[in-house]
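Q: Here's a chain of 354 amino acids. Please give me its 3D structure as C-alpha cells.
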Amino acid sequence: MDRHAAAGVSGRLLPGIARASRAARSTATPRGGATPPSAATADLAPSQSVHNGAELSGEDGILGALSPSRASDFMTCPLLYRFRVLDRLPEQPGLAATRGTVVHAVLEELFDLPALDRTPERAGVLVRPAWERLLAAEPDLAALFADDADGSALAGWLSDAAELVGRYFTLEDPRRLEPRERELYVETVLDSGLVLRGYIDRLDVAASGAMRVVDYKTGRAPGAGYEAKALFQMRFYALVLWRLRGVVPRLLQLVYLGSGEVLRYEPDEADLRATERKVRALWEAITRAARTGDWRASPSKLCEWCDHKVRCPAFGGTPPPLPALPPEPGPDAAGDDLSAVDAPTPRQTHFDDV
C-alpha cells in the first residue's frame, strides 16, 4: 500500500506504508540522554516544574513541561488530560497496553544480542522473561490473569506478544542494524520556557550524521489520510532532537506490528517550526483551561476504553474537585504559576500503542 499525499505542513510522507522494508544503519554507541525526572518529581504540584530531574521555579523562566502523550491527551479530551496530569488518578492496566510494554522490552533487548543472534526464534524466547521482569516490577499486573486457573489465558497472551515480535522481522532485519540509542530520554526548553520531553524507542545515526527516529506500535497502522495524529508524536520528537542537536532528523519511522506496516515521513525545518507553534498553542490552551477550570470532555469512540468514564460528565459522572492551585503571581513574578507538570517516569505501559 503506497501513500503519496503529504501528511504535514511541508515535510514528505514517503510512498511506503511498506509491508517488507529493510535498512542498515551505523555502529552502536552506549545508550544515554538527558536524566529522566525521578519518581518524586513526577508528583510535583501544578505550580512546579522540573528540568533534568531538578525542581525549577518561575524565576528560572520555565512555564511547565509537556510530552507527546500528554499533548495527545489534551487534543483528544481536555478532561482526560486533567485526570492524568492534575488529579493524577490511577488507571487499571489493560492486556493490550501491557502486551505493548512487553513487546517494546523485547525489541530493546534484542539489540543487546550479537548481530547474528538477532533471529525470530531468539527474540521469541525473550518474551516470557520480559513479562516476568515487568510483573516483578509491577506486581499489580497479576490481576490481569487472576481468573486464569490453568494458565491458558496467559499462554495465549504471551503467544500473541510473540507473534507481534515475530512480525517485526518481516519489516526490518535487525542483524543489519546497530541503533545509536534505545529508549532514549530527551528533553529541551523552548524559547518560550516550555519544556518538551519524552522517550524515543530507537534512534539510528548514519556515518554521515543523518538521524532516523523509530517508534514501535503494537496496534494497526492508521488508514490513508488519518496519519496526522500518529505523525504528531514523531514530529514532536524531531523538534526536540533538532533543538538539542541542531540537525533535523532525516527520517521519522513508525513500525506498526499489528498490521505489519511501516509509515515513513521526512520532516524539514518549516515542518518542525509549525510543530513548535502547535505545541505552544496547545500549552496556551492548557494554561487557559487551568485558569478557568474549564476542562471539557470530548466524547469519542475512545471513551469505551477510558478508565475515567464513570466520573465523566458526558456519561453522567461527576469529576472530583479540582486540586487547589496557588494564587496568581504578582506583577514581578517571572513565570506562570499554572505550569502543570507532565513529568514522565521510566516507561512501563505503552498507552499510545492501543
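Q: Can you summarize the key feature?
A: The two ends are 22 Å apart (CA to CA).
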